[in-house]
Design goal:
3-stranded antiparallel sheet; binds ligand TUI; TIM Barrel; about 15% strand; 2 domains; alpha/beta
């Protein structure tokens, strides 16, 4: 069995988070991961307070285990959902795509464990100072909003920079990724892309099929010009966006509007040509639809075998 301080801190069986993926991470997926012994996470993404509260209540009906909520700080409703998690008695909040500083005091007072997703040591240190109980160090291999560093370079540097537990994210989808993360100093992992094809994941089959068919080199990053780089699978949408992104005659607001509604289009309408199919570089290794519980068991059995035999190279 693999037990780390993260299990005890959060009351979970396996030290694994399911990423808070926008338009993907709903009550169904979060409850499945939590019921399997990991930490399921509902994505607040661009929901308002009322919509998030409804999703949280659904999850409470599906599981008695702890689950978290991810707050995407670029959301126009960030302020509102920051209050909803307090009112709904959520115990764990992860944040992404920004600095959660201004909400920290409120959350800590409510007894919420705050675990920001961070792309650098500077932000990790700052979050520790402001009261985070752990950080997710996410490398740019991940899908969605990405930082500059790779998981391999980021995780050990963050582990050295802070005294709180570190969870590794970006490019992890099997036991090898988990074992490697623990060797880099992390006490757990966050997995997104593999859970896209979980049976309990409610996105359109077209999205799942695109992930299942993806090869190692099929992701691209768009959105750098506007300062919000996002990784997803190459398609008609990313080709058009990339072309316009590097065309200086195209104004920023035209680019901005090109990105409106595209996540929902892919995930919920199944238009994987004109929508944005966010996924990480590890998509090439994701080839099997399974229940979330089976994925988690498989990953940890493999990690345990690898770590158990790790001394074979030590002479
Ligand atoms: O947040 C994510 N992944 C995401 S958010 C998202 S929704 C979205 N859609 C369109 C454009 C932008 C976002 C899809 N995927 N991962 C966690 C993450 N956080 N990665 C990088 C960061 C990050 C970046 C800058 C965290 C903090 C930060 O701080 C800057 C500052 O304000 O100091």
């Amino acid at each position: 069995m693999i037990k780390t301080p993260l299990c005890e801190m959060l009351g979970i069986e396996y030290p694994i988070f399911q990423g808070g993926m926008a338009w993907v991470a709903d009550a169904s997926l979060a409850a499945a991961v939590s019921n399997a012994g990991g930490l399921g996470i509902i994505a607040a993404m661009n929901s308002n307070g009322e919509q998030l509260a409804a999703e949280i209540r659904k999850a409470k009906e599906l599981t008695d285990k702890p689950f978290g909520v991810n707050i995407m700080l670029m959301s126009p409703f960030a302020e509102e959902v920051a209050q909803t998690v307090v009112e709904e008695g959520i115990q764990v909040v992860t944040t992404g795509a920004g600095n959660p500083g201004k909400y920290m005091e409120k959350w800590l007072q409510a007894g919420i464990k705050v675990i920001p997703v961070i792309p650098s040591t500077a932000l990790a240190r700052r979050m520790e100072r402001e009261g985070a109980c752990a950080v997710v160090a996410e490398g740019g291999e991940s899908g969605g909003h990405v930082g500059e560093l790779t998981t391999m370079a980021l995780v050990p540097q963050v582990c050295d920079a802070v005294n709180i537990p570190v969870i590794a994210a970006g490019g992890i989808a099997d036991g090898r990724g988990i074992a490697a993360s623990l060797m880099l100093g992390a006490v757990g992992v966050q997995v997104g892309t593999r859970f896209l094809v979980a049976k309990e994941c409610t996105i359109c089959q077209e999205y799942k099929d695109k992930v299942l068919k993806a090869k190692d080199i099929d992701t691209v990053v768009t959105g750098r010009r506007l300062g919000h780089p996002v990784r997803g699978l190459r398609n008609a949408f990313t080709r058009e966006y990339s072309k316009k992104e590097w065309d200086s005659t195209i104004p920023d607001d035209e680019l901005e509007s090109l990105g409106g509604g595209v996540l929902r289009l892919a995930a919920r309408e199944g238009d994987v040509s004109n929508g944005s199919v966010l996924a990480g570089q590890i998509a090439g290794m994701v080839t099997k639809e399974q229940p979330a519980a089976e994925m988690i068991k498989e990953m940890f059995t493999e990690a345990e075998e690898l770590l158990g035999g790790a001394s074979k190279w030590v002479k």
